[in-house]
Design brief:
Elements lengths: L4 E4 L3 E8 L14 E7 L1 H11 L4 E7 L3 H12 L3 E6 L5 E7 L4 E7 L9 H10 L2 E4 L3 H13 L3 E4 L11 H6 L2 E5 L6 H10 L4 E5 L5 E5 L4 E4 L12 H14 L4 H16 L9 H4 L5
Parallel strand pairs: 1-4, 1-8, 2-6, 4-5, 8-9, 9-10, 10-11
Antiparallel strand pairs: 2-3, 6-7, 11-12, 12-13
Helix pairs in contact: 1-7, 3-4, 7-8
Length: 289
């Protein structure tokens, strides 16, 4: 199979707990407004949206052959996502404490280490054939970065709530042709975007939650898009869907403003479900249908 987009990064099994407020850092009791289990992981979210958009996609992710790992594998297979699975000693699992407004604390319960490269021949071949490579923040994609750079294919990265200084993000930023982030921890998001263009990226984008997103192109021109109005059920995966919508549109030749609007539409499509994408609704909540 030749994939237009190759992704490497996390696919996880998540427990979501919705609270009226995030917990204070003191001993106390708090009642949840709701809770459920679902597929998580930034790369799984991007792959789901790209697949739903009709974009040929191959995801490389790691899991153990345990119960959470098989739940992830089965759900993504039923949703039509093509995955080249790597074996890991553990399956990635998160506990996400959420508010209805979208505030979140993510607790990583387990996280896979990088592999020893046993599948590299297949991975390098897939990257070489792809139109774009997406490498998300995790040990395995970090290990694959030199191989990705050697292909000469454009590399897209998502550094999420980067604070502008964390060392782990630096290799991803240095390799990136397109950089995405959110504004949660950056002192000046727009200044950061311009700094990435000055460092050699061709595109830098920062999502702003309900305020939409801002992007800076290769000429340092700023572009903005409003968030699409939608009734929010759960905010998990919205940033990944926005990323995927922009990437898909750019690969079709859309200009940046058109691509940003496509990203906003893609993000709105996942805000109305409690899963990473509506295609998971009949897979994980069959009784609801």
């Amino acid at each position: 199979m030749t994939a237009s987009v190759f992704l490497a990064g996390p696919a996880s099994w998540n427990t979501i707990v919705v609270l009226d407020r995030l917990p204070e850092p003191v001993p106390h009791m708090q009642f949840a407004e709701g809770s459920w289990e679902t597929v998580g992981g930034t790369s799984a979210g991007k792959a789901l949206t790209l697949t739903a958009l009709g974009r040929s996609t191959l995801l490389h992710a790691l899991s153990a052959s345990d119960e959470p790992g098989m739940k992830i594998r089965d759900a993504l297979a039923l949703a039509g996502v093509d995955v080249l699975w790597g074996e890991s000693a553990v399956t990635e699992r998160h506990l996400n404490l959420m508010t209805r407004a979208g505030a979140r604390v993510s607790l990583y319960l387990s996280s896979p280490e990088a592999t020893e490269g046993q599948d590299d021949a297949a991975l390098i071949a897939a990257m070489t054939r792809a139109d774009a490579l997406v490498l998300d923040l995790a040990p395995e994609p970090l290990r694959l970065l030199p191989h990705a750079q050697a292909t000469g294919r454009p590399i897209w990265v998502d550094v999420h709530d980067y604070d502008g200084t964390a060392d782990f993000h630096r290799p991803f930023l240095d390799a990136a042709d397109a950089v995405f982030c959110n504004a949660d921890r950056l002192p000046d998001p727009v200044d950061f975007l311009h700094s990435r263009i000055a460092s050699g990226a061709a595109l830098a984008v920062c999502t702003l939650g309900a305020d939409g997103a801002v992007a800076v192109d290769s000429d340092h021109v700023e572009h903005r898009v409003a968030a699409a109005p939608v009734e929010v059920v759960d905010t998990n995966g919205a940033g990944d869907a926005f990323f995927a919508g922009v990437l898909d549109a750019r690969l079709t030749g859309a200009d940046l403003d058109t691509a940003l609007r496509a990203g906003a539409r893609a993000a709105s499509s996942v805000l109305g479900t409690r899963h990473l994408h509506p295609v998971l609704d009949p897979v994980l909540d069959p009784a609801a249908g």
